[in-house]
């Protein structure tokens, strides 16, 4: 087994069967070995840095009905909001003053935000904060829309594939289909975004074969970023009686992703931090190197409840992150934090 891990470390590649073999046979000591290999790989490429992003949850309106998500269309208990352009720019300005150089705009698939509105918003953000990287996490749109946003200045795009098993994907996302999700991801890549894919750990029907399929999907797509988080059931969704996804398994998947895609930027996700007090430290020790802190106005934070007891850290809590990172030998980095394959000048050009 150690041999298979060594092969993965050296070649950054394994077959689906070998990945299943690892997942079926990982004991504590091999797991620690895996984490060490993943951490070494991160440090070799990015150093001992944690890249900091500011997250702005601009709307909790959503036309989709994902079975696990607290802001799904059919959840009538959600107090819906959308931020005005002014509120968005003011929140980003607050983050900019603290020193943030990456903004992530995330929301439900809110049709109010037409292509025209997004394009104009991106242009304004880039004009006001020219040295900042703009990341969109706004769901599925056409090639033309993605291209327009990219031309307006959007640098990165997060769109988790959620689960790479077609049948399970289609069951969990009524009215959506995996083929379209996949096309969106390949379109984003073709357009030139630093794109992020990723998946949930602990979905009903999941097994090690499905987890290995997620890894193979990522290996083939080769995204610049990968977000992996445990499922946290929300009481107002059809998955309310499911178990919380395992933190340990999430971290194992994070470390395998690091070894398959050494240059990926891999966040230690809010969901992992929500279910695990030392999630940040454990994630850093296993190949993670990004943290997102919340820039949303305080009055909307509780309303963006995609899962129960969501624990986002406020953008001002940098000191806490700094301390926690330091305890495991990492330092925070407030730069743009581009993927190494997309590095540009510090002035953003
Ligand atoms: N609408 C955009 C999209 O589809 O990419 C972004 C917003 S969506 C709410 C962001 C992520 O939240 C999803 O990719 C999903 O993995 C995660 N999420 C939603 N519900 C969750 C839950 N109950 N537990 C853990 N993560 C969840």
TrEMBL record:
Residues that, per the record, bind (3R)-3-methyl-D-ornithine: 137
Binding locations of [4Fe-4S] cluster: 62, 66, 69
Keywords of the record: 4Fe-4S, Iron, Iron-sulfur, Metal-binding, S-adenosyl-L-methionine
Every Radical SAM core domain range: 48-269
Domain of life: Bacteria
UniProt GO BP: sulfur compound biosynthetic process; water-soluble vitamin biosynthetic process
Keyword ATP-binding: no
Pfam families recorded: Radical_SAM
Xref: PROSITE patterns: RADICAL_SAM
Protein name (Swiss-Prot/TrEMBL): Iron-only hydrogenase maturation protein HydE
Residues that coordinate or bind S-adenosyl-L-methionine: 162, 181
Organism lineage: Bacteria, Bacillati, Bacillota, Tissierellia, Tissierellales
InterPro entries, sorted: Aldolase_TIM, BATS_dom, Elp3/MiaA/NifB-like_rSAM, FeFe-hyd_HydE_rSAM, HydE/PylB-like, rSAM, rSAM_sf
Species of origin: Sporanaerobacter acetigenes DSM 13106
GO terms of molecular function: 4 iron, 4 sulfur cluster binding; metal ion binding; transferase activity
Cofactor binding remark: Binds 1 [4Fe-4S] cluster. The cluster is coordinated with 3 cysteines and an exchangeable S-adenosyl-L-methionine.
PANTHER family registered for this protein in UniProt: 3-METHYLORNITHINE SYNTHASE (PTHR43726), BIOTIN SYNTHASE (PTHR43726:SF1)
Cofactor: [2Fe-2S] cluster; [4Fe-4S] cluster
């Amino acid at each position: 087994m150690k041999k298979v891990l060594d092969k993965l470390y050296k070649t950054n590649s394994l077959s689906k069967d070998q990945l299943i073999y690892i997942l079926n046979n990982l004991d504590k000591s091999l797991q620690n070995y895996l984490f060490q290999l993943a951490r070494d790989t991160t440090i070799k490429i990015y150093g001992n840095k944690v890249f900091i992003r500011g997250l702005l949850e601009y709307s909790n309106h959503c036309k989709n009905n994902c079975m696990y998500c607290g802001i799904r269309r059919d959840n009538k208990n959600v107090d819906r909001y959308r931020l005005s352009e002014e509120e968005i720019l003011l929140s980003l300005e607050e983050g900019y003053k603290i020193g943030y150089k990456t903004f992530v705009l995330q929301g439900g698939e809110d049709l109010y935000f037409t292509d025209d509105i997004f394009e104009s918003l991106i242009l304004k953000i880039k004009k006001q904060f020219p040295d900042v990287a703009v990341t969109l996490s706004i769901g599925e749109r056409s090639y033309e829309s993605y291209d327009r946003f990219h031309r307006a200045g959007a640098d990165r795009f997060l769109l988790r594939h959620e689960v790479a098993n077609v049948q399970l994907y289609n069951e969990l996302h009524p009215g959506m289909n995996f083929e379209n999700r996949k096309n969106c991801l390949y379109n984003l890549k073709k357009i030139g975004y630093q794109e992020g894919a990723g998946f949930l750990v602990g979905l009903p029907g999941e097994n090690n074969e499905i987890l290995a399929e997620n890894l193979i999907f990522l290996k083939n797509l080769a995204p610049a970023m990968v977000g992996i988080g445990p499922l946290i059931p929300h009481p107002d969704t059809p998955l309310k009686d499911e178990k919380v996804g395992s933190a340990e398994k999430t971290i194992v998947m994070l470390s395998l992703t690091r070894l398959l895609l050494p240059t990926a930027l891999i966040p230690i996700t809010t969901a992992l931090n929500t279910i695990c007090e030392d999630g940040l430290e454990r994630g850093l020790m296993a190949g993670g190197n990004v943290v997102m802190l919340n820039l949303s106005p305080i009055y909307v934070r509780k309303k963006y409840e995609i899962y129960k007891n969501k624990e986002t850290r406020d953008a001002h809590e940098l000191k806490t992150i700094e301390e926690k990172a330091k305890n495991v030998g990492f330092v925070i980095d407030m730069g743009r934090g581009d993927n190494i394959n997309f590095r540009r000048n510090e002035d953003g050009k």
